[in-house]
Structures
1.
Amino acid sequence: MRLFRSIFVLMLVASAVPAAVLGWILLRQAHASVDLPSAAAAALVALGVAFPLSAWFARRLAQPVSECVRGALDIARGRFGRQVRVTVRNEVGELAYTFNHMSRELESYDRENRQLIAALEAGYLATLRSLASAIDAKDPTTRGHSRRVSELAVAIGQELGLAERELKALAYGGLLHDVGKIGIPEAILHKAAALAVEEMEQMHAHPAIGAEILRGVEFLGPAMPAVRSHHERWDGTGYPDGLAGEAIPLVARVVNAADTFDACTSFRPYQPPMGVEEAIAVLERLRGKQIDPLVCDALIRVTRRRASASPGNAEFASSLAGL
């Protein structure tokens, strides 16, 4: 609008002033007496013609420029591929043609970059799954545990309405939450009996070991708290840092809940797998003690919804163990 006003004023001045000057010169050269009413009428006619012509030219010039400006703002906001409709055949039309070509090229580059990022993330995820399988292979009784925890943690995150970035952190954190067990002797991992005090201390070190292993891997930064803090408890009696309540990172609270549920519904040397309702009863006892109440409630909703969609609780529990 400001461009239109500026062009309009310039066009009006450019058309009215020369006409007035020319009329004044002609009157002086003719030494004629000036008829004021006639001169006023002529001036009004000149202005009446100059006004719409100036408005037409101003609009013709300002509209395509404004369209290019709006297109440039869309590009700046990431809306690549934006095309402007300019039909004038002048320098502004050439500018619009160049803008449209640039916009199409940017859209193509953006699409290629997104495909590349998706391929890299898929490669990262495949690598993480291989690493998780290597971790689980240290203890045959936990085969598939990390993948199941990852999948369930993401489902809990979706139930809580978390953003995509947080869901990725849950997926990666769930896969790698036990990566520190690489540094724990297999004799301790496989032991069916109660661990001795020294053995328990070694086992309790695995979250810190895992966080140290992943330190410096930038894209895993959001998942790091899940690795270090998934054994913290809501009441503050967990390890390795004794965090309590909301001081425990949310991704760690979610992975803790998923880890607990999978431990209940999977075969372990010290217990057979539980059914879904039996495992839910355990979760309810741990609600507000080990597990964040909101996270616990979300997990229960997810598991009951899945159980109701399958023929029976036993089949549902076995399907979780096979994920």
Note: The first helix runs from residue 2 to 30.
2.
Amino acid sequence: MASFQHEFDFLASLRRLIPSHPRLALGIGDDAALVRFPDPSGCLVTVDMLMEGVDFTIPPATPRQVGWKSLAVNLSDIAAMAGRPVACVASIALPRHGGFDLGRELMQGIGECADRFDVALAGGDTNTWDYPLVISITVLGEPTSRGAVQRSGARPGDWIMATGSFGGSIAGKHLDFTPRVAEALALHQSADLHAMIDVSDGLAADLWHILEESRVGAVIDERAIPISAAAAGATDNRTPLEHALSDGEDFELLFTVCPDDGRKLLERTPMTTPITRIGEITAGSDCYLQSANGELNLLPPLGWKHAFTP
């Protein structure tokens, strides 16, 4: 590669790399993209920023894995609303040294994820600087005819259910997970989803988001929590259950339904991804973890938080 490549060389290379998409009336190359949006009645919008040293480290992560993750985390947010992703734009701050080749690999990962979920890559912005990689992607999506599922609809008596398993994502899942877009749509079609969220900060923390928005409480059965193999095999001083409750970046779906719908989902699961009943919504304002002997202990919102320092 030449020594004096700049952002316009990079953008030109991307225009050759990124295929056209039928949703784009106007794509990369103008001041704004023109997206053929399928439903004029509403648009879901989500954005997530990933930073090297916080959300990933290169190495061991490859730029392609980082690209996949940077779009997948946003698709997971669309899934949490039981929506369909439509288009995305990406803003990237590339390290000045080596950033050209890194950026091309990064965009390959983004492109693979976009192609997998039929998302139009509509454009974005690129800068260079003397610091690590930062990438922010915004995704536009559409709700289904049943509407967007929010965090605020959980009701006392609801079953609390989850897809997949939890804990230990740092062992690799956080880089190559599959966002539960198809699963969310299948659940939404099969049941009346009262509330839903994707588990990014931690199972306990994200459950608390539902409880706070819905103004309800919960009891979680510790024996029912599906623990991943990575969490079960962890060798630190924390138990597999602690990992499952607090590790974060599992990107599974946590949702509530009435008991009748819950039973139907367990009897005829509308997808190959397993689902589990892990607890029940209560009329209170506290969250309890029920042990194997029936003892109830307060469950705080364990999980990841971006912190500030003085």
Note: The radius of gyration is 21 Å.
3.
Amino acid sequence: MQKTLKEIAKLIDGEVVGNGDILITGASGIREAVEGDITFLANSKYSPLMAKTRATAIITSNEAQQETTKPVILTPNPSLAFVKIISMFTPDDAGHPSGIDGTAVIGKNVSLGKNVTIGAYSVVGDNATIGDNVIIYAGCYIGHHTKIGSATLIYPHVSIRERISIGRNVIIHSGAVIGSDGFGFATIKGAHHKIPQVGTVEINDDVEIGANVTIDRARFNKTVIGRGTKIDNLVQIAHNVIIGENSLIVAQVGIAGSAVVGNNVTLGGQAGLVGHITIGDNAIVTGQSGVAKSVPADTMVSGYPARPFMTTQRVNASLQNLPKLFDLVKELKKKIEALEERLKDK
């Protein structure tokens, strides 16, 4: 496939600066691109790469643009624009399976929509409901009375326990476990007695769940993942957690029971949240932070324990000066001791 730069600009509603008639035959990252490719640059911090890339043309914004001999397409959101272009030059050829494999086990009273795919050796429990155009890869388990919305994609070896609700256009990657028991025990005379976890999990529309994510069922009511939220690999979400819409949960985050995470929240990699706290809308928790108390909306926190971001920066800067401060204290101590000796002599 090949397109002129003007044709691509029209697709993404961008403005061509330079020769709009050149032909583009592919799309790639700014470091990997070769002649004939179009690439993108969204962050002005990486502007020097514009002079080094072998790409024929670059998608960028007014803010990130710098002088370059290459033609560019200006657009307010280069990253989003590039997603459209990648889809055009590299169409989805994942080759998803189709149909219901003969080795799949389908329980009683299962409701299957149109064009449903169920892969080899997958199990669907009694009274489950599978919507139109759902794809379930091989080796998956869908528990009884579970509901899966239309156009949802479930990769191999996913376990979705009983009475779970999955929305539409959800993507669940391999190894994820949805609806496992919450970690609840009553300790009596040194023995840990299991507290039944009889709630459920509700995954709303357009959620993506990474590989080996675990989302525990609620103790009584439900654990909730809001519409449009994206969860990276190896995340643990405990019982009764509520996560709002369009939040980003990065790899190895751990969220303890009954925490509430608002809308448009970003939790950086390996951040840990204690239970029964609230993270306000649009908050950012940076990577490896330990959050021990609630975070207000529109706030960035970092560190352990997590503090306002600038406070943590000042603390870290002070820590860097500790060796100098130690040497200064030693020097002052010597001077004080010398003064004390002189006073004694007098």
Note: The two ends are 95 Å apart (CA to CA).
